Amino acid sequence: MLAFVRRFLNSTLGKGIALAFLVVIALAFAAGDISGLRPGGASSDVVAKVGGHKVHDAELTKQVQQELEGARQRDPNVNMQQLIAAGGVENILQRLVTSIALEKFANKVGMAVNNKLVDGQIASIPAFQGFDGKFDQATFERAIAQRGMTPAGLREAIGRDMLAQWLVSPTVGATQLPEQIALPYASLLLEKRAGQIVLIPSAAVSQGNPPTDAELTAFYAKNRARYTVPERRVIRYALVRADSVAAQAAPTDAEIAQAYRAAASRFAATERRTVRQVVLADQNAANQLAAKVKGGTAIDAAARAAGLEAASFSDLDKAALGAQTSQAIATAAFAAGEGAVVGPVRSPLGWHVLRVEKVSKVAGKTLEQARPELVAELSRSKAAGAINAVQEKIDGAINDGATFAEVVSEAKLTAQSTAPVTSAGTNPDQPNTPADPALARVIEAGFGAEQGDAPQIVQIEQDGSFAVVGLDRVLPAAPRPLAQVRDVVQKAFVAERAQQEARKAAAAILAKVNGGTPLAQAVAASGLKVPAPTPLTATRAQLAAQQGNVPPPVELMFAMAPKKARLIAAPGNGGWFVVYLDSITPGDASGDKRAIASARGGLGQVVGQEYAEQFAEAVRRNVGVTKNDAAVARVRTTLAGQGGAAN
């Protein structure tokens, strides 16, 4: 797990300085969480200074929490402690500092971002668009308000990231490498190694006597963090859903009739056409083609004879056909009957010859036939209005200082409480019960609040449904009492002791092998009931194809000297592998153009990233960066206490 987190932090996404900031912003809004882009307010603890800019602990904390959510999208089991252990806080601070330094440097050399360009990027973010796919000001203001941001703050963040992208992109793009440099790496991929691997499992050695109370107590004290439950919170909430206002949302007969009259054209009888057309640049050629089709030649055959292809428009009404061609063509097509040849008709594209392949008549709907559709639409609209009215009333009460209990009582809502849950929404006392996705926004709001804060309104559904959320109490991170986890501790103690015994046995075999005894003979002489050594032959190219999923013993075999053996632990206290490397066959990619080209491509990405990192380092030195290690350590400690996974 820790290796996964390290790979994530050091991946292109994890190490990217400025190549995907705008995409990240858009994705974050779409996922409903961009609050990490700017701190909610000033902090008394400064973790770094970049030129004259101060980076506060609140901003760093938010960035780390956002990074954790990104890692959890790839592996839901990742928790905060693992992110911190993998150097997450330091890496994220470095990226944040680099982003600010790049902005300072860009300003220093006279670069600036046009406001219209920033506005264009904002308009392209899906979370700010209405149902028609276009930017909607009201949606924009509501989205950023829900996340505690201002338009100016968002524009500043996007402008900074655009400057960083402009600075770094040319550097990353400088990835040309000569063949002479790529050849040794291509040859290395063809290197072949042969060896043997054997597992000395913990189960094959003596498990020893049951641990004493003193041994368990000492083991528990040494591994207290392993049994620590992260911070939990009990969150109170009350739901207001569309179905709770269903009675108020039922439309009357008069409203249904009025809606039917307003949508008369929608429910009127219509016709639809399937049309084939050919577009020609010359009117005379179009006249000749139309004459052929009218004379009985198939329009496809006539088009091919002219070196063209006929296009088809299937089962469209007049408006849809006009949208795909032109209004004049749609009018001409709908004025003709089935089988008729139309045209030539002029458009900006040229001269159109059409054949009406099929005419479909769509019957209109009476009021009674349209009633179910209209009732559904009106009910949704009225429900949204009723929910908005309830929300405005509750919002007013909160602004007037009402408590959670007072709000719920006045609005006649049903209050509920979560179990003591972590920020991931799980209850450590019920580790097999997953988090309820329906309460994700409620949990997020609860962990964003402080004791004594006013209740919050949180949107939970697209139909306007919302929850009133209040923080009940906070349970700080603390280890479970030994008595409560005694069985778990005892199993861990026995497993670790067996792992140590397995290592002693594996070390004895290792000593014999490195002294000249064949691996199979050394294993047999140990007296342990273990499988015979497994022979293994592989190339570096085969390892590269596994994309980081190489078993540790195999990876070790490619980091050894020949005719030597080494040990590596099996995961989960499962024992120890003895790895013996018998031979190394060097690779030679001379004349293998495909292998060399592949190596050049892979190295180009690495070199581009290295250029970008060196450029960023030069910018940081030019601007001037200082870090407060003590403040960063306090952020790590605080985040470690928040946890993120049930134990």
Automatic annotation (TrEMBL):
InterPro entries, per the entry: PPIase_dom_sf (IPR046357), PPIase_PpiC (IPR000297), PpiD_chaperone (IPR052029), Trigger_fact/SurA_dom_sf (IPR027304)
Topological category with respect to the lipid bilayer: Single-pass type II membrane protein
GO molecular function list: isomerase activity
PpiC domain boundaries: 270-358
Family: Belongs to the PpiD chaperone family.
Keywords: Cell inner membrane, Cell membrane, Chaperone, Isomerase, Membrane, Rotamase, Transmembrane, Transmembrane helix
Organism: Sphingomonas molluscorum
Protein name (Swiss-Prot/TrEMBL): Parvulin-like PPIase
Taxonomic lineage from the root: Bacteria, Pseudomonadati, Pseudomonadota, Alphaproteobacteria, Sphingomonadales
Compartments where located: Cell inner membrane
